[in-house]
Structures
1.
Amino acid sequence: MAKSPALPGNPALSQWINECAELCKPDKIRWCNGSDAEYQSLLTLGKADGTLIPLSPKLRPNSYLHRSHPDDTARTEECTFVCTPTKDEAGPTNNWMEPQEAYAGLRKYFEGSMRGRTLYVVPFLMGPVGSAFSRVGIELTDSLYVAVNMRLMTRMGEPALRHLGQGADFTRCLHSTGEFDPKRRAICHFPQDNTIWSYGSGYGGNALLGKKCMALRVASYLGRQEGWMAEHMFVSELTSPDGVTMGFTGAFPSACGKTNSAMLRPAERFRSRGWKVSTLGDDIAWLRPSDAAGGGQLYAVNPENGFFGVLPGTSERTNPHAMQTFSRDSIFTNVALLPDGDVWWEGKTEQPPNQAFDWQGKPWTPDSGRKAAHPNSRFTAALANNPVLSPRCEDASGIPISFIVFGGRRSDTQPLVLESFDWTQGVYLGATLSSETTAAATGKVGVLRRDPMAMLPFCGYNMGQYLAHWLEMGKRLAKPPRIFHVNWFRAGADGKFLWPGYGENIRLYKWMMERCQGKAKAVETPLGWVPPAEAIDLEGSGVSVERFAQAVAVDKKAWLKEAEDHRVFFTRFGSDIPAELLEEHAKLLRRLA
Ligand code: GTP
Ligand code: SPV
Ligand code: MN
């Protein structure tokens, strides 16, 4: 059995790797240093064993297609566990397992699971180099696909080992794809041990353990203890023609528009005048209050170093900056392969190709009666590929956040945009966020569920206490960000979206900036402040004043029902629901009366 080469100066790391190797019994152990040469050699290995299908060097330079096991194409929330000593610590919204029981059960899966395989040791840094925000993880994985994705998604190798030094403060991430059998699959988090064990899946959120498992579930747990926050948010900067730049973040559930907001290309009318959005991150934010010297503001970094973004619906029209991001040096997962060696997915072009191989490699034509790409097909690309990347994404201190946007996917009821009255009511808006489920997780699509702060699947502890932590953080900020709520997906009587979305969303982000500046008009509704049509520049949007009014309308009858649903949802948390949120609920009822 292979043994890890001793790591100079870090006995804790060597010992842990040896323990895991003894359990999993790999044939080989390969340390990853994160270099370009190593990445190319891993790609060559992946080509040879069929993990990676090379795409046309002309159409997609240095890019590859990966086809997942057909039963392993999305996060599996039913196999995801928070393993705290008591069930109460995990709370009512997480699957829970007692830690010793979880370790024992998983040990049986991991025992000998890497026989005949290579164990990749992947050190990675989450967060900018030299930042107080940043944390080290080490992933041990038998998946080459995971190793190459981690190279694009994280700061891998040297920066991580340098940050760690001789310390033992790293997240211990053990991963094996096992047999890709959904019945023998478990993604277990041990926040108290700073440990993650994931078995039986090679899919992004289940297997790239730096992402959802460490940077959200474990980090949210640590953040509560240490006074910061880990959130399912994009981080962007908005710049106006007069040169004002504001940082903002947005929490939308999986596949509800974060990547698109992060990389937004403003509608022509705005772009030509100098409106600009720059990306810091598209999925995860780590947020800390600055001290008084920093103005008592909330600062954000993106802990990731790349994108793992949704492809269906992504086109030159909807998200040209994403199209440019994955024009080269990218990995495509579960898309269709074209005869010319390029890739395709639903929505990439208006006209589908005449023929292709679908995401499972089967011949496909538009008459096949099935989708060519998997609805949760994704691209992986480095941050640096993004043409509108903010240079401040490497800033050790992060950027100050002027406003936070919550958003869900609701075909009805939820207005296009509103602003909260204050931080506490903003937290209420986030706590009651609801959205129709998407293909990012297994299970039925289009089912309405409450997804507080878009963190329902990602909160590493009791969500009632998580909401209390949000309220607490607001009190520590001299200048808390303003809070808005959006719904790009409200439909009219014709069943069509009332709002065109994508680059047109700049019209509403502009209003949000102007609200922060005290410049824009708003009218009071029971839910919050809403822009009157004259406060939004609608010219060229194709949206009439009447249609806009429909998009922001508050239907009191529907909202009385909605408020009742909020109440029922809150009862799930028992006495953990903060009293301030119950008071907000009472206030909402009074405003609706
Ligand atoms: P995760 O990576 O799963 O966390 O998702 P995300 O929140 O980054 O979602 P993303 O931006 O990738 O968008 C998901 C889907 O919603 C894609 O099919 C988009 O084309 C679509 N979408 C994004 N923004 C808009 C919008 O403003 N309007 C409409 N109608 N669709 C949108
Ligand atoms: C999501 O599901 O929210 C994602 C994709 O961003 S995954 O990394 O798989 O979680
Ligand atoms: Mn996500």
2.
Amino acid sequence: MKRSKLSTEAYIKGVLSGDRIVLSRAITLCESHKPEDVSQAEEVLTAIMPHTGNAIRIGITGVPGVGKSTFIEAFGELVTQKNKTLAVLTIDPSSQKTRGSILGDKTRMEELSRNPNAFIRPSASGSALGGVSSKTRSVMLLCEAAGFDVIFIETVGVGQSETLVHGMVDFFLLLMLAGAGDELQGIKKGIMEMADAVVINKADGDNKSAAKRAKVDYQNALHLFPKDESGWSPKVNLCSALEKTGLEEVWGMILKQQDHVKQSGFFQMNRQRQQINWLKENVSELLETAFYQNNEIQSVLEGIVQKVEKGELPAMNAANLLMRKFLDKK
Ligand code: GDP
């Protein structure tokens, strides 16, 4: 059954009053690609803008199996016990080949999903990563307008999505395991470099002493990186998401970092910069879409691609040629 559409005012009122059902529907609206939805979503976002920006935005990443969902359940529980409301958003770069979801199954974070102070929302899967990232920012703003104090954005630690998440949060937390080499963990140096904290999970049972050794190794490794612009030196913590230990320290550390960056002025500057980057990302995305949907381009693209493929036309020339066609300067 198709639900009747809400009016723009109903979306705005519902979101601002923290109505979860309306919030969910507003998120769906913002994720939609239909032109009429896009313009309604724009109106809703414009109206809620003054009510956004008040949450602590935390990015959480780590390779599959590191314990992200277990950590988010346990850490999320702790955050809500501190009288904070929490929204958990996930960016799941669905496999382009299989269209399968990496974060996937619906049973993840079952406990947290029953917590009245938590709200969990997976990203719309199947779209291009850039699109997902842009939409996630809108979803984050909607959640802030709905009054959530803390936002977790979860992503799989395997590549490009980390850079995108790092570009929309105030704190970037990297979950790691002891005993597995970095290569094994699939974590690129660049991701380590973005982290405000490395949290070594599964520091329990037989794994405890290995975790302590790994802590020293990571601390040494982090010292080798150039100092972060924010002036914050990344920390290494141990925790067990399963036994719920070390989580209080992680929360304390995040609050400390927040104090630090707010006092130094980095917080505000970073948020402003993130907004500008969001604008630029959107412009690139819109341009690319317009380019490939352009009739003129569509009629010549295949022939030009073939010429490039056969080595008859340098790629650079091909790109210039296409651009001239797009801009109508033949
Ligand atoms: P994700 O793929 O990163 O979301 O990882 P999961 O949260 O699904 O965890 C993967 C596996 O590691 C599951 O079997 C968890 O029970 C286990 N696990 C997660 N956290 C811990 C921990 O702190 N200690 C131990 N021993 N196992 C854990």
